[in-house]
Amino acid sequence: MNDSFPEEVALRTETDIVVVRKSVREAAIRLGFGITDVTRIITAASELARNVFLYAGSGVVRCRVVSRSDQVGLELIVEDHGPGIADIDRAMQPGYTTGNGLGLGLPGAKRLMDEMEIESEAGKGTKITVKKWRKGT
Amino acid sequence: MSRSTEGSTLERSSAGNRVSAGMQTTAEHFRMLVENMKDYAIIILDTDGRVASWNPGSETILGYRSNEIIGQHFSRFFPSDEVQRGKPEMELKVATTEGRSEDEGWRIKKDGARFWSNEVITALRDESGTLCGFGKVMRDLTERKRAEEKATLQAREILEISTPVIQIWDGVLMAPLIGTLDSERTQKLMEGLLERIVQTNSAVALLDVTGVPTIDTRTAQHLAEMTTAVRLLGAQAVLTGVRPAIAQTLAHLGVDLGEITTRSTLAAGFRVALNLLSLQVVSGNGSR
Amino acid sequence: MERSPARGVVLDVSAVESLDSFFARTIAETTRMVGLMGGHTILTGMRPSVAITITQLGLTLGKMRTALTVDRAFHILRDGSQPVQNHE
Fold it and tell me: Do strands B51-54 and B40-45 pair parallel, antiparallel, or not at all (unpaired)?
């Protein structure tokens, strides 16, 4: 499982989102994802990183290669120590937002990726893990 | 040498066979062959179709020991629907009139499991031509059958997955959708279609669903996604081959096709496409 | 736009490799502003991978006008409010 090249990007300013997009893009291309999947992964990373910036102010994005029986994939872990998500079910509904976003971030990122896991505790922070498996071969 | 009369009869019947004296008789060779043919079930049936002899290969393939099966009717090797259709009797009848009957099909083992059997049944007649039974040889070709089925399935999947995108006019593409539209196919089709739209600079894409048997909510969503993505590129998708039944299903499912242009036939869709193209040429006004 | 007699804005996104909901909102706001000034905004050159991704993300860009190429976008802008007749 740990055949990874962990890449970690600290999210402090808005421009760090660009850095996240760039490093995730490189990792996805290196893993051999097709152009549309690369775009999906970058977009999901961008949505999640934007959420951290909007709601928690700062955080960290980690990116690594994961594998299971006969497939490899990319895992992104987006973690912050912000206020946490009070109602995860509601946060997963398209159009729901507590900030000034479009409310597409979480449900949208889930649709773009294959798996999503949210751990959140009020006042402690949020950790979102998403995975995308490479199709074929 | 205590050569039996039976043996000498058989030896005579295989005249020209160069079996040297002192070696075993042809009948014994034959018996050994039958006993050692583990991959073949070699069964002798009486004139009514009851098992009269059972080799070890039969036990391997069908699972019955000879003392369990001798005297039983061979129809028990057939699936019940085949028995009802009179298949076992038919085989005997064909073998009686034609001399032999060849077949492939699912047969049933003792434990109820199916196996794919390639089999020949031959009428056995004595010197005077009187029918004295049948010889049945069966082979278990389940693995080959499964491999064939898998290959057929794969071929069909490949055909279904790789939906062609055809340029039918300058500026008009057409994708004939066939079979069920699952997520994976939709993704592949969408990628292919969008790439072609850009490559050929086509303003209209006709998505023909004539070959799609039923459209469920998910398929409808996929189609809606496809139309949206096409529109984002600056082109327009027209859904054609939308039969009244499908239109009703869509309405019933609560799918809003208000944003999607639909036509019942490909020809009608093509006229829409030409209309859209001429509008662009004449007025440059892409709005509807 | 203020100093030209333009009737609108052509947004060429052919160089954009990924487009998230934040960027989409920026586009929507631009369109609204241009609209307030009496012009049209036409989005052009979107890459297939981007179109697929933002559709899946849940963005439709509403009534935003789109064109396959910059040429066609200008064509639409130039003739958009004209009566139907042949312009070349």
Answer: antiparallel
